[in-house]
Design goal:
The longest helix has 34 residues. By secondary structure, the chain is α+β, with helices and mostly antiparallel strands. The radius of gyration is 45 Å and the shape is rod-shaped. It contains five helices and 21 strands. The strands form three sheets. It has a six-stranded antiparallel barrel with strand order 2-11-14-13-12-15. Strands 3-10-8-5 form a four-stranded antiparallel beta sheet, with no helix packed on it.
């Protein structure tokens, strides 16, 4: 406005004043722009690279727990006072080892009584057989009636039946005597004793006293649940419709809660015949060697199952930025502007993070310079080309 006013007054003197004022204002504007430029500084430098496109194996992971192949509850089969305990809590036992001994005296008496009854029945059977033989001889001379012969034959048959009954009673008594020695039905690790010596235990088919339990440890099962979507995908990706884990021993790996490497290898040996209608999952089972007995039934673990080869993009894990609940990756556009893209993450493969969705193979990913606070979405940067390198393949990933 001042320049317009001076120009309106006219005259050479006024023109010189206007020119001087214009030059002064131009200098001030230049100084202000220079100050702003110095305050903002140059555009930050970043290192960019395109993601690596690779075909990688897909590993599906499931949480489950270990279970024993065999687990037996050791119970008393006869009643009586517990006399001996022949194991230490937690030790390994063999099949057939005597674990408990129940008072045998009443059952020994029963065996002796049954044996005596068998002797008596056998003696009666011998006498009855002789009477029947004499009766048959007397019928030739008509000195005995046919009715008497029939009666003696019936008596002989009854005597023989009594012998059979006595033999069965003796075997039953001997079996009860044998059951007073409670033996290990399987080999494995025994739990603690549930009853101490001197206590009365109850035997029989129902309400029998639980004495201890035994579990096998080598090999050991791992039980897990897979989703319906995973089951359908596995079924469709098989070479033939029936080639599933029910018929073929697919390789699997497992690691415990404090382990980072998949060093424990096993095979699938069972897939259930139906899905759970409530949870929409299907039960699977793998078997693992446990020579050192380190794996214990009930321990939780993480199982990895091969799910086929898939195409994926790989970037450094450090390039992933956490934005509250989402994960983002900074991408540099053609005009050197920073753009934040939300991505879906996969597992680590060869030291790089698998990106399942959200990126394109042509995107220029920021892999260096993220520590600069000026590198943010919408900022202008100076990109420099870098290279994404894969780490050496770990033995457990092969």
């Amino acid at each position: 406005m001042l320049l317009a006013f001076v120009a309106a007054r006219g005259g050479d003197g006024h023109g010189r004043v206007a020119s001087a004022l214009f030059k002064t204002l131009a200098a001030l504007v230049f100084l202000a722009q220079s100050a702003v430029a110095r305050a903002e500084g140059p555009a930050p430098e970043v290192v960019v690279s395109r993601p690596l496109a690779r075909t990688i194996p897909r590993w599906d992971e499931y949480t489950g727990r270990f279970e024993a192949l065999k687990q037996v509850e050791v119970r008393a089969r006869v009643s009586g006072a517990l006399e001996k305990i022949n194991f230490t809590d937690g030790q390994f036992v063999k099949a057939g080892d005597v674990l408990f001994v129940i008072d045998q005296r009443p059952y020994q008496i029963a065996v002796d009584s049954a044996r005596a009854e068998l002797t008596r029945a056998q003696a009666q059977a011998v006498a009855s057989t002789r009477d029947y033989a004499r009766a048959q001889e007397m019928t030739q001379g008509r000195t005995i009636t046919a009715r008497d012969v029939d009666q003696r034959k019936a008596s002989n048959d009854i005597a023989k039946a009594q012998v059979l009954s006595a033999e069965a009673a003796l075997r039953n008594a001997e079996l009860n005597l044998e059951w007073t020695q409670v033996r290990a039905p399987i080999a494995g690790r025994v739990s603690d004793r549930r009853v101490d010596s001197g206590n009365l235990v109850q035997g029989g088919q129902a309400d029998a006293t639980l004495l201890t339990t035994i579990v096998t440890l080598d090999p050991i099962h791992f039980i897990f649940d897979a989703s319906e979507a995973d089951y359908i995908r596995y079924a469709r990706s098989a070479e033939r419709p029936k080639e599933t884990s029910r018929e073929f021993k697919n390789r699997v790996s497992v690691r415990l809660a404090d382990e980072t490497e998949w060093t424990r290898s096993g095979v699938m040996d069972f897939m259930d015949n139906q899905l759970n209608r409530r949870s929409g999952t299907i039960r699977g089972r793998a078997v693992f060697d446990n020579k050192d007995y380190f794996l214990t039934p009930g321990t939780f673990g993480r199982l990895r199952l091969f799910g086929g080869d898939v195409s994926a993009l790989l970037i450094p894990d450090a390039s992933v930025v956490s934005d509250q609940t989402s994960k983002t990756v900074l991408v540099v556009s053609d005009d050197n502007k920073v753009i934040a893209k939300s991505v879906s993450l996969g597992p680590i493969h060869n030291g790089l993070r698998v990106i399942q969705s959200g990126l394109d193979a042509k995107d220029r990913i920021v892999i260096g310079g993220l520590a600069n606070p000026m590198v943010r979405s919408g900022a202008t940067v100076q990109p420099k080309e870098g290279e994404i390198k894969e780490a050496p393949v770990a033995v457990s990933d092969r």
